[in-house]
Amino acid sequence: MNVLVTGGGTSAPIDDVRTITNVSTGRFAASISESCLARGARVWHVHAPSAQLPLLRLARFDLESADIAGEFDRLRRLHHEWKAVGDRLQLVPLESGTVAEYAQILHHLLLTQSIDVAFLAMAVADYEPSPVAGKVGSDEDELIVRCGRTPKVIRSVRDWAPRVYLVGFKLLSRATTPELLRQAEASGRTNRADLTVANDLQSLVAGSHTVHLVRTGHPPETLEPGADLADRVVARVLKWAENSRQ
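The structure corresponding to this sequence follows.
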């Protein structure tokens, strides 16, 4: 399969030196790409400038490890894995990280590549200011930034690639599970997505990341925390995508 994954958070400039962004690290998106690669897929990974990257995020030597030899072995295995899948991984960076740039790159890839599944995990800004040329002065007691709505990029994907299996993501914070599911289902309908992956920020912060897979016409499926969470999501998505093509 040809898979498109997006990860990290967009950035909205206030002036030449300040930006508004969000807390997304791109870790879950990187894990999704790693799982797709392990299953033989060809992956285009679109990422924000500071986002974690598939496999490369793991290539850091732990100087505090008590098992130095084990660390060398782990990095050696990672190097072999990179060589095995590297020709099937295309890293596509955002330069400025803006919503407009994200939309442009997504549009280009969906029109020029035969993408079967799109995991749109990037945290895309809902609001952004009109940037000021230069630098806003730092002498005032308050900095007031007025922001306008940004386009919902995911809502155009079905027009750009009608046959793609589209996976959207819905993140709330401090929401009840029924409210999270309700909003995820509404987003799925509006975005014309095949699946919406719903999660709450607090479960991430607490180290107990739980996701809910929400599909119109199907009961939601809850996946409990675990090191293989992204892999379990990918296994279901690729199966459902294959079924949808038959």
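DSSP finds seven helices and twelve strands in the chain.
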